Amino acid sequence: MARPALRDFSDSLGDALTQSPPNASFLGYNWQQQPVNSQFGLALSQRYGLMPQLANVLAGRIEDLDAAELFLHPSLRIQLGNPNSLRDMDRAIARTIQALQNNEPLAVWGDYDVDGATSSALLTLFFRSLGHEPRIHIPDRIDEGYGPNAAGLTELYNAGCRLVFVVDSGTLAFEPLAAAKAIGLDVIVLDHHQAKPELPPAYAVINPNRLDDDSGYNTLAAVGVSFLFLVALVRAMKVAGWDAEQLPDLLQWLDVVALGTVCDVMPLRGLNRALVAQGLKVMRRSANPGLRALAASANLTKIPSAHSCGFVLGPRINAGGRVGQADLGARLLTSQTDAQANELAAELDRLNLERRQLEQAATAQALAWVEEQEVQKGAAADSVLVVAHADWHPGIIGLISSRLVEIYQRPAVAFSLSAHPAKGSGRSIQGFDLGGAVLAARAAGLLVDGGGHAMAAGMAIANQDPGAEIEALKQFFQQRLAAIEPGTLARTTRYFDDYIGSLAWQDPQFMAQLQQLAPFGEGNPSPKFCLNHLEIIAVNEPTTGLVQAMFKDQNGKWLKANLSRRLASRQEDLLALRGQPLSAIVTFQLSDTPRGMRAYLSFEDVMLDTQNGL
Q1: Mean pLDDT in the chain?
Q2: Together in a domain, 232 and 283
């Protein structure tokens, strides 16, 4: 694929939207309210005293009244289930107990993203509490690539390790794990990525996404799988004679579990919802020196939330694996002193700034290229976005694809063409299993490597003829998406949960009840409401990377709102609508301040009131 040309993003977007249908929004979308059973919403409102708008949101996210209680009050005790139902769990537990009894040296082979770092840290913190300090190896993204390799495993064996835990990878590592078995190294895989019918020759492969696993834990991140492993291990250790009072309380590390779960974009429903809800409570105690130092370096003074995990803490931990040392995140999360934690947090903060600069430049190029294609193709625009560039750092391509998904609401893949093979990283939308699509593309010969889960995947093309290879891959993904979602693609529609008035959302009761629906994230997105009868007043110059605008509601009160990236790119066009009645699709980000709970508004899209009859 030719290098995307740098061009003015707002100009190309403006050209595209002048061709939008008359009933479309400012960004060219049709708006539609999410269908909801109003009788069910009324029943929830009456039972739990919820405001009608929030009761309707809840009605769209649960199946029946019985599910409402666990949704509003997540319970780890009730939702934990039986970890031993995972395949190979009993075998892995027996081998681990043997290693602990014999005081064998242990090792943890992690991954360079947040899920890998938190999984590595969780195991390390647990074994350290028992007096066993495992060696941690996090592979370098560029030099070693994803997952275990034979050379690194052999090095651990030569260092005296006979049991290695491979976390957040390993399910497709056939050759490396065969090499490990050949030299007598036992490997326990704790993973969640999609599997093939055959499994690698590890001592145990604990992965709820094994094709023969029916445990029901298939939405967990690797750190969630690792937590279940420790739950089962502690139970078995008690049976084996360990003094229960000498065993650690696993709940103290739920802050690490919550961080990895949120940052790996796992659905915040069921057990994940309970893990994150309880984990955020633990995070508020600031007991982990690394997380405490990281929050301080990021000037994070608000009470931790899923949003701060995903957009403040997570990116900094990821920065080490993207543009610095891959093991910095795991080292930070296992820091034992404030001095060590502060030093590592400062380095990760510096690397995050470098990462952000690289990402901003690359994202601008990707957006310009996509918008050019949007103008050229019009209604025939790609339903799956695939972009590539020879100069993009391999560590930021996942961020590029994330930004494209955020803006266009379509699956997206970004490739760095700097090496042979060329590495790619993709992110998906709800309903399109990207990990499964990557495995299918690999089987079809369109990829030389690849794997992942439903919402994110890594892959590689040969890079001999990148333009042709990428086009073939894009067509393959689009055909799979079309088979799932025939007809009009959902990307032409923006959905919102309910209508809301200015007085309703500013009611303290609304904010308190909205907090009951949190934590928000994948599988439980922040509710979106349609706010009518607005008038734009001004757009402020960005000071923190966010563009804000002032609006006036029908009561004459001024509202400040953050603008979505695409709205922000069209400030002048937006200001041209002064004096005209507008509606907006809005989300609320809650923050606990010294003056109480406060809501911050974000506008995703706007529309003239007269265009949709609002």
Answers
A1: 89
A2: yes
What's the average model confidence in pLDDT over 437-441? 95
Q: What is the pLDDT of residue 545?
A: 64
Q: Residue 292 and residue 507: Cα distance in Å, rounded?
A: 33
Q: CA–CA separation, 551 vs 402, rounded Å? A: 29
In a domain, 53, yes or no: no
Per-residue pLDDT of 174-228, as tens digits, reads 999 999 999 999 999 999 999 999 999 999 999 999 999 999 999 999 999 999 9
For 454-477, give the DSSP string.
Answer: SSEEEEEE--SSHHHHHHHHHHHH
pLDDT score of 314 more than 90 = yes
Does an H or E element contain 63, and which? none
**Are the C-beta atoms of residues 318 and 332 closer than 8 Å to each other?**
no
How deeply is 18 buried, as exposed, middle or buried, from its count of CB atoms within 10 A (0-12, 13-18, 19+)?
A: exposed
State whether 224 and 175 are in the same domain.
yes
Helix (H, G, I), strand (E, B) or coil at 530: strand
CATH number at residue 289: 3.90.1640.30
Residue 359 lies in a domain: no
What's the CATH code of the domain at 376?
3.10.310.30
| CA 342 to mean position of chain CA atoms | 26
Question: Which CATH number does the domain housing residue 559 bear?
Answer: 2.40.50.140
Q: How many residues does the structure list for the chain?
A: 614
The DSSP symbol for 102 reads T
Task: Please give the pLDDT value at position 279.
Answer: 98
Residue 339 is assigned to a structural domain of this protein: yes
* 282 lies in the same domain as 171: yes
Out of 489, 518, 550, a domain closes at 489
Of the candidate ranges 81-95, 398-412, 562-576, 600-614, the one whose mean pLDDT is the lowest: 600-614
CB 45 within 8 A of CB 52: yes
* Same domain, residue pair 284 and 213: yes
Q: Report the distance separating Cα 526 and Cα 587, nearest Å.
A: 6
Residues 421 and 503 in one domain: no
Domain containing residue 416? 370-489
Mind giving me the DSSP string for 268-298?
A: -SHHHHHHHHHHHHHHTTT-SHHHHHHHHHT
**Domain final position from 489, 509, 533:** 489
**Same domain flag for 442 and 510:** no
Number of independent structural domains in the chain: 3
Mean pLDDT, residues 514-534: 92
The average pLDDT across 11-40 equals 66
pLDDT tens-digit map of 445-496: 999 999 988 889 999 999 999 999 999 999 999 999 988 855 434 456 788 9
- Note whether 330 and 138 are within 8 A (CB): yes
- β-pair partners for 424: 415, 459
